[in-house]
Amino acid sequence: MNEWHAFTAVCARIRTGLLGAPWHDGERPIRWELMIRQSSDQGITPTLAWTLRDDTSLPNEVRGYFAAMLSLNEARNESLLVGLARVVAILNASGIDPVLLKGAAHLVEDLYPACGLRVVGDLDLLIADGRAHEAAEALRESGFAPIETDLPDTHHHLPMLKDASGLGVELHTRVQHDATSPAAEVSWFVENKRPFSFRGLRLHLADPTRTVAHNVVHGQLNHALDRDGRISLRALIDLAMIRKMHESVIDWAELDDRFVRAGHGEALATYLHFGEKLLGQPMPSLRCRPRANAIADFRRTIDPLELDFSGEAQTITFTFSGADARPVSGHCWQIQMPPALFAGASSQAPACFGVELFEDGEPLGPADSPHHDIASRGRGSFSHWADTLYFSAANNADPHVPGHTYEVRMQVPGLLARERDALLRRLQTEFHEKMTAADAAQKRSHEIEIAALRHAHAAALAALEHSAEAQIAALKQAYDARIAALTSNHAERLAQAESLFWQLRKRLERRPRLHRAIRLIARPIIRRSAWIASHWKAL
User: Fold this and answer.
1) What residues make up the domain containing 320?
2) Quick one: 319 and 285 in the same domain?
3) What is the rounded CA–CA span in Å between residue 103 and residue 111?
4) Which tops the pLDDT comparison, 475 or 143?
5) 446 pLDDT band (50/70/90 cuts)?
6) If we measure between CA atoms, which residue out of 172, 178, 191, 199 comes closest to residue 100?
7) pLDDT of res. 443
8) Last residue of a domain, which of 302, 326, 361?
9) Residue-level pLDDT at 215
10) For 518-529, what is the mean pLDDT?
11) pLDDT digits (tens, 9 = 90+) for 329-349
């Protein structure tokens, strides 16, 4: 089983388990890792898990994985429905009734048999009548914020809005990006829209014909999958479920006419052709034919390395006489085989395999023996290296006497196998070169980041030093100002003290007894003041 076989096996399970098609035995042995990878790439793992829920042949680890994916997606979709109710309530409060698109519409309509089957990324709502910006403003006032994006103003939806929980909302102004020749212009799309009550809130669903139109337009035209020869299997399954529920009311003639007039008739026919081949839903009658080789082109996008290996390996023989062999050492002899058999061979890519050697019709061996074993032990052991065969006779006799006839049989790959090997080697070399270039680019990026960090570090240190110097200068200035103020205050107090001192002296001169008493009381204080001590004798 290769990648394409895994993809078609996934489609077969969906076709049987979801669409009710009969099961056909005889498929290839299943490689679950490939099927899981394909379902994951296509965003349909929960869908595949649901179709296999009762399959008792599943390995336990595969069963556990599928059960977990289905349970987790069901919980997530329930959370999305809660978020949808909050968004619609905000819009209803502003008098806006949105038209649901894509996954949100399918969840609300119960298009799938269970809530957890459809993977939904975000909520897509069509806001007609030019009120999309008003709706976006109402959501912003309720805690949603726009995601930075480079979408042009002419895009078919506004930049995504997200709230704190990660709920994403895209408000569409139209359903098709190409506004010049749309197959589904917005005025037509909102005709016959169906009012729908969701948890007591007002919203609309497009009618089945227009839902099919948007299914085709969104992936095949808006995302250019038709141009690239690809499809979205998730969208194709959506289309299959829409047809299963509403086939009787889908107006295929109207859809055919609209897509043909818009220049997309072949895209519609090719997409429905995929639905028939992969999911078993018959194509309706259309004016355009599907694109030639569409399935083959798509197959190459699923498995680019898949080739047609119908060129089977061939068995060729080379016969030689023992008399032509040349001795090497011990029991080992050698013979040169035609170089043309080994064109393009190397040690990594041998041009032949399964080499057998016969002596007079009897097989020899073992093959691929080490040369020293051939020389020392012999007994028919042999080996080939490029276009040289090293061998020994069955009984270790001289091949020259008597003469023996030897036949070499080998398997040579067909042309396509050699092309495959060359392609794989080229892709491996290109991959190695790209990884080397990526490593070099990452190293350069790291060097640039380190240089930027060093520059920022130096700038931060310089700013810190400048700030420290400024702070020191300010502190010094404040200190000097404080010292000057204290010095000035101290001088004033000294002057006052000196004035009082002379006044006291004059008074004491007139009262000698009081003079002696003061000297006794003031002696401890005098010891503490150098200035008073220096003037005390004057008293």
Assistant:
1) 314-413
2) no
3) 10
4) 143
5) low
6) 172
7) 67
8) 302
9) 94
10) 61
11) 999 999 988 765 554 444 333
The pLDDT assigned to 201 comes to: 93
- Work out the mean pLDDT of the chain and round it to a whole number: 82
CATH number at residue 277: 3.30.460.40
384 and 274 within one domain = no
Pairing outcome for strands 99-101 and 201-205: parallel
Q: Which two tokens stand for residue 48?
A: 């595949």
pLDDT one-digit tens code per residue, 117-135: 999 999 999 998 889 999 9
Closest CA to 381 of 392, 371, 389, 372: 392
Written as six digits, the tokens of 46 are 């929960």
473 shares its domain with 342 = no
Q: How many structural domains are present in the chain?
A: 3
* Amino acid identity, position 292: A
| 411 DSSP β-pair partners | 315, 353
Same-domain pairing of 150 and 259: yes
Averaged over 56-60, what is the pLDDT?
88
In the structure encoding, which two tokens stand for residue 243, read together? Answer: 């047809």
**Residue 118 sits in the same domain as residue 242:** yes
Judged against a pLDDT cut of 60, whether residue 414 lies above it is answered with no
CB distance 383 to 371 below 8 Å: yes
Residue 374 has a CB neighbour count (10 Å cut-off) of 25
Q: 365-374 — which CB contacts under 8 Å span 24+ positions? A: 371/328, 371/332, 374/330, 374/331, 374/332
Percent of the chain with pLDDT over 90: 41
Q: How far lies 440's CA from each of 95, 300, 431, 434, 436, in Å?
A: 57, 31, 14, 10, 6
Which of 18-22, 308-312, 407-411 has the lowest average pLDDT?
308-312
Q: What share of the chain is helix, strand, coil (3-state, %, to 5)?
A: 55, 15, 35
Domain boundary among the residues 356, 390, 413 is at: 413
In-domain check, residue 307: no
SS3 334: strand
Residue of 363, 359, 381 lying closest to 371 (CA atoms): 381
- Where are the strands (E) in 362-443, listed by range? 362-363, 382-385, 388-391, 405-412
How many Å apart are CA 237 and CA 39, to the nearest integer? 12
Q: Do 521 and 482 have their domain in common?
A: yes
Whether residue 214 is found in the same domain as residue 88: yes
Residue 234: enclosing H or E segment and its boundaries? helix 233-246
Which among 390, 278, 380, 292 has a CA at the least distance from the CA of 334?
Answer: 390
One domain, residues 270 and 402: no
Asked if 92 and 201 touch (Cβ cutoff 8 Å), the reply is: yes
